[in-house]
Amino acid sequence: MTIAGVYLAAGAGSRLGGSKPAAELLPGIGLGGRGLSALLASGIDAAFAIVRPGDPLGWLPEAADSDPKLQIVFCGDAGLGMAHSLRCGIACAEAAGHEAAIVALADQPFVTPALLNGLANAWRSRPGLDYVICGSGDASMPPVLLARSLFASVAGLKGDQGAKRLLAEPGVAGEIMPIREPTLVFDVDTPEDLMLAKELMAQSK
Predict the structure, then answer these.
(1) Of all helices (H) and strands (E), which one includes residue 89?
(2) For 175, phi and psi rounded to 5 degrees?
(3) What share of the chain has pLDDT > 90, as a percent?
(4) Which of 6, 20, 135, 172 is most deeply buried (CB count within 10 A of its CB)?
(5) Averaged over 115-124, what is the pLDDT?
(6) Cα 113 to chain center, whole Å?
């Protein structure tokens, strides 16, 4: 019952004025590096970071260079929408024989290893589930664990479709893992979001 990490870091970042993973949180700390560090520090068995062709990868954390679990995957179709990056990552997890994949986003800098391990533990305690997703109030959001039973469905996604649209399909069984601290799943999409993330980062130091 091995679990892979699929790290979606191919966002164009058009609203941030450039590559989203490379957006600076603090001097020398890129937005994408924080989430990847958390993923690598969790209990996953392998990690596939999905990036755009030509990404110089300057945002990668130092730990990435020496972590044998990590594989950088250049997704040629990334420009067609998030679904194509997700498809690429899930295809890697499936080809490597993993039974599930935790999908994490490069624009969620406050995700922790404990949160990711919570998803894995919830699924391992009920391996018949097709997914386990984070939830806050009435909303659900990434990171999300997708079991192998959903891998084939992911392959049919297109454009900017995300995995969430698969979770409501008939016969799909899942669980929502409550998140008591909304900051943990805060995502950065706009310059205002980035400014708030910088403030939160500064407060935590």
Answers:
(1) helix 82-95
(2) -140, 145
(3) 70
(4) 6
(5) 97
(6) 12
Residue 171 carries which side chain, given as an amino acid letter? G
- Give per-residue pLDDT as tens, 12-26: 766 776 688 988 888
d(CA 187, CA 205): 19
State pTM to two decimals.
0.95
8 A C-beta contact, residue 63 and residue 21: no
φ/ψ of residue 92, rounded to 5: -65, -45
Residue 71: count other Cβ atoms within 10 Å of its Cβ: 14
Which residue range(s) make up the domain with 166? 3-204
Half-sphere exposure of 35 (CA within 13 A, CB side): 32
Tokens for 95?
């080809």
| Neighbouring-strand partners of residue 108 | none
Count how many domains the chain has. 1
CATH of the domain at 94: 3.90.550.10
- Cα separation of 63 and 58, whole Å? 13
The residues with which 132 forms a beta bridge, in sequence order, are: 145, 175
